[in-house]
């Protein structure tokens, strides 16, 4: 029986100024998915390591994403069996559901002989996101599948733009072990924003994209400013402002809330600085009495990767 | 006496999705400014050809921009005399005041031996814009001085990013001879916008910048969509929607209102298409009984240019 094992990366959505449109992929952490083709039609989730998630395909993001793929695949007689290993904690804000959904559709696509382009796979994985959060957003699944930085220009129709990644860009992420539900984090956002704030935000998003193309780290740093969402959501994250100020003092270019939180990310221009920033995160959080994890990672350039085949 | 003659280009601000932040420069039309250094301190406007504008320096955008420059220049004993030839009609929405202000500061800077960097000149010229429209915006003066496409990332502090210009990009502009005051065009805008519209807008601005870096004309075309300002301001422009649809059918990538109107611009990927689009504009406007002018121009790559010295 043909089988494959893939690594599916964590991702940082929004990237400060790019609410709902920009995302980036990490080299670690990531989920692993082992998948086999089966002669029995249907999707079977044999087990999930590391998290308490439903095995029933229609209630599991991998299952739902695969179902979306199978709906567009001609041969209805193939089936899939898979085991999921969750290394990205659900609810962390670094694309846990997106990684699993992305891993599942990329693995299945390879097993089937790659009938679908990556852009199509993004659409299938978005159905997993619809299950996980109620909306089929693409700002985590796009970087999880394509790697690097991605832009979701539009949802109607889905229009994904792969952006370049400047060399030596590192990410430090702190995940405070508190629960912030994506749906709650969405609900506290206002439906209307001030025009003058919106203008600032799109000035910064445009500059972030220019900075990525120019390898202009200073410009990237200046553009990592979120005047729309961060002022509202940061109240849900302990010591957010202190953390941000101290990480930037320690050399980080800038950062913000990862996705809908509670994780916070910082970008740096070297592994050394990214590790210093990690230490600063430890120093800020250690006295708070909140459990936390810190990840240090380069930007993942490839998206979902085959581990063995 | 040292003297110089410069050409100062018309500009298209906003460029559809980039309200208040993106601008581009045209090769034509443009104003001309002849300027001489003088031993008598102060600014003297000897004459203005082609428009009825104040000669008094404190009431003229060139005078005010030059005053801003002189405030930062050490030697207070120099003066300037100038004659302005207006080929860009005031109130047209293609940066008439910006061109004159930009031309004046660039000419003066050259006469003084270039003590100021271009970014500084943008700030001086912005003072002309403050006089002309009540706000010191930079989205016309930046492309007039730097050429090509520019981005105003921020006003506090002023942070201008020069963007690349894909080859063979042409602009067609129709200027309906009706009056739309910048202040009126500003007043009809809402102070708040829907979050979902703002997200669409910054997705498009980000994609426009990516398209310019990638020379991706299709992406540029898809991103030339303005869901915030155009729906409100387009009511001030006769036959706007008909014009836009027919220009795109004729091969234009897309376009929108130039600045605060009433001019409308369209981008095309060749001179041939740009001229076909010009014909379409003629066809749409001829029956309306509104006077109009049409300009066809490549993107200006250099900003203000020296004609003679």
TrEMBL record, chains A, B:
Location of the protein in the cell: Cytoplasm
EC category: transferase
Gene3D superfamilies, per the entry: 3.30.230.10, GHMP kinase, C-terminal domain (3.30.70.890)
GO molecular function, one term: ATP binding
Catalysed reaction, written as an equation: L-homoserine + ATP = O-phospho-L-homoserine + ADP + H(+)
Pfam families: GHMP_kinases_C, GHMP_kinases_N
GO CC terms in record: cytoplasm
InterPro entries found in the cross-reference section: GHMP_kinase_C_dom (IPR013750), GHMP_kinase_C_sf (IPR036554), GHMP_kinase_N_dom (IPR006204), Homoserine_kinase (IPR000870), Ribosomal_Su5_D2-typ_SF (IPR020568), Ribsml_uS5_D2-typ_fold_subgr (IPR014721)
A Gene Ontology BP annotation from the UniProt entry: threonine biosynthetic process
EC number: 2.7.1.39
Alphabetically ordered keywords of this record: Amino-acid biosynthesis, ATP-binding, Cytoplasm, Kinase, Nucleotide-binding, Threonine biosynthesis, Transferase
Domain (GHMP kinase C-terminal): residue spans on this chain: 209-285
Domain GHMP kinase N-terminal: start-end pairs: 65-148
Cytoplasm in keyword set: yes
Pathway it works in: Amino-acid biosynthesis; L-threonine biosynthesis; L-threonine from L-aspartate: step 4/5
Function: Catalyzes the ATP-dependent phosphorylation of L-homoserine to L-homoserine phosphate.
Family: Belongs to the GHMP kinase family. Homoserine kinase subfamily.
NCBIfam families per UniProt: PRK01212.1-4, thrB
Protein name per its UniProtKB record: Homoserine kinase
Organism: Chitinophaga skermanii
Gene that this sequence comes from: thrB
């Amino acid at each position: 029986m043909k089988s494959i094992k893939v690594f599916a990366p964590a991702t940082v959505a929004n990237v400060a100024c790019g609410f709902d449109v920009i995302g980036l992929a990490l080299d670690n952490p990531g989920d692993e998915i082992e998948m086999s083709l089966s002669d029995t039609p249907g999707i079977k989730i044999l087990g999930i390591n590391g998290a308490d998630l439903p095995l029933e395909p229609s209630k599991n993001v991998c299952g739902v994403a695969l179902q979306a793929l199978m709906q567009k695949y001609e041969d209805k007689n193939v089936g899939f069996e898979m085991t999921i290993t969750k290394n990205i904690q659900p609810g962390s804000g670094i694309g846990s559901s997106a990684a699993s959904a992305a891993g599942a559709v990329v693995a299945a696509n390879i097993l089937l002989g790659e009938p679908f382009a990556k852009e199509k796979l993004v659409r299938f994985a978005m159905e997993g996101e619809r299950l996980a959060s109620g909306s089929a957003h693409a700002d985590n699944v796009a970087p999880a599948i394509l790697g690097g930085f991605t832009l979701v220009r539009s949802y109607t129709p889905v229009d994904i733009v792969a952006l370049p990644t400047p060399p030596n860009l590192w990410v430090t992420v702190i995940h405070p072990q508190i629960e912030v539900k994506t749906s709650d984090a969405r609900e506290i956002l206002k439906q209307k924003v001030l025009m003058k704030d919106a203008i600032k935000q799109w000035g910064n998003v445009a500059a972030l994209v220019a900075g990525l193309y120019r390898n202009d780290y200073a410009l990237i740093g200046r553009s990592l400013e979120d005047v729309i969402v961060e002022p509202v959501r940061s109240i849900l994250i302990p010591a957010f402002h202190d953390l941000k100020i101290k990480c930037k003092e320690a050399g980080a270019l800038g950062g913000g809330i990862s996705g809908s939180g509670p994780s916070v990310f910082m970008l740096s221009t070297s592994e050394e600085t990214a590790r210093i920033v990690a230490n600063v995160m430890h120093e800020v959080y250690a006295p708070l009495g909140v459990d936390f994890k810190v990840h240090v990672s380069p930007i993942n350039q490839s998206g979902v990767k085959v581990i063995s085949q």
